[in-house]
Write a structure and sequence with these properties.
single chain, alpha+beta, Pantoate--beta-alanine Ligase, Chain: A,domain 2, four-stranded antiparallel sheet, 4 strands
């Protein structure tokens, strides 16, 4: 395997790892959305913070949660790469890429 082959392998492998990490984050985010929706159903409101869900998540949990100013909409998101993130908006029920 020449230098070109090694470089191609490293690029492929690093891209594979980044995609796997983002898939893992999306799975964790979907799980969190499910928990938020269950809380909303049980309490007739969205949680004010992720702590209200009592999930005992680690401090370095890679998913963010925020409530909009009117407190009727929540956003769940994670960083995909530098200056780029995926955000789920509960009012739209869809994922949006943020740049």
């Amino acid at each position: 395997m020449g230098l070109f082959g090694i470089i191609a392998y490293v690029l492929f492998f690093s891209d594979y790892l980044k995609n796997k990490e983002n898939t893992d984050k999306e799975t964790k985010a979907q799980w969190l959305i499910t928990k938020i929706e269950q809380y909303k159903k049980d309490h007739h409101k969205i949680p004010q913070s992720i702590d209200d869900l009592k999930l005992n998540l680690p401090d370095d949990y890679p998913i963010d949660y925020a409530i909009t100013h009117d407190s009727g909409v929540y956003v769940v998101g994670f960083q995909v790469e530098a200056f780029k993130s995926m955000m789920y908006r509960s009012d739209l029920k869809k994922w949006i890429m943020q740049h």
